[in-house]
Amino acid sequence: MKEIKCSVIQDLLPLYIDDAISDDTKTLVNKHLKTCEECKKEYEQMKETLYVPIENKATLFIQLNKQWNKKKRLLIFSSVLATILLGFAVFSFIVYYAKPIPYATDLVKIEEKADGTLVSNYFGKSHAGTYASHPIKVEIDGEMKNVSLIYYVETIANSPTSNLLGEHKSSSPIQFVLPESESVDAVYYGSFDFEDVITTEELEWEKRIQQMTLVWER
Ligand SMILES: [Zn+2]
Questions:
Q1: What does the domain layout of the chain look like in residue ranges?
Q2: 197 CA distance to ligand 1 middle (Å)
């Protein structure tokens, strides 16, 4: 039988090492390796680099899998955690930085419409929200009055981008119609707690209102 070319044998070597060739071909390679030093060398080298025992192959595969899973899990975990932390940070950021805008005469103006409703005009730029109470009965200087409380808040979230947007919008004020304002005798500006408005006895507001600013009176 004619000798098979070394190049053919060497092409077959990886398959031979992997035991992925027919018995006939294997016999041919075996024969050739016995007689050819060069191919034997090639085979020995290739075996070292390619040959992984079946058992080890399996373990290697499992280990890689495990590592990958661990990595993946770690990645998922950290991204979830990051999302939670980010959410928390953003949340507390907005909550903690939603601060009442201090009263200024050119910032807030209460306007009485012909029908007696009161409109609050806010001329500032950084505005994140309006808080207004329904009229509450408060004794002021011995007189019972229907008082509305109002204040505006700004947040960091509101600036500077929204400020820029706000500037593009228009220079017209943000308007807010005070609830049930036809019956309102006075409007006070100053921060208050919503829970307070609900839970505090109306008469107790006399003291609290002293820390607020009277911005409108009928
Ligand atoms: Zn050879």
A1: 6-50, 108-217
A2: 97
Counting as low any pLDDT under 70, the low residues of the chain are 1-3, 48-98, 128, 155-171, 194-203
Query: Distance, CA 54 to ligand 1 centroid (Å)?
Result: 27
Cα-to-centroid distance, 46 and ligand 1 (Å): 14
pTM summary value? 0.51
Residues around ligand 1, an ion, CB closer than 5 A: 6, 36, 39
Q: What is the token pair recorded at 154? A: 């700004």
Is-contact 9 29, C-beta < 8 A? yes
pLDDT value of residue 98: 64
Residues 178-206 as b/e (b if ≥16 CB within 10 A, e otherwise) read beebeebbbbbbbbbeeeebeeeeeeebe
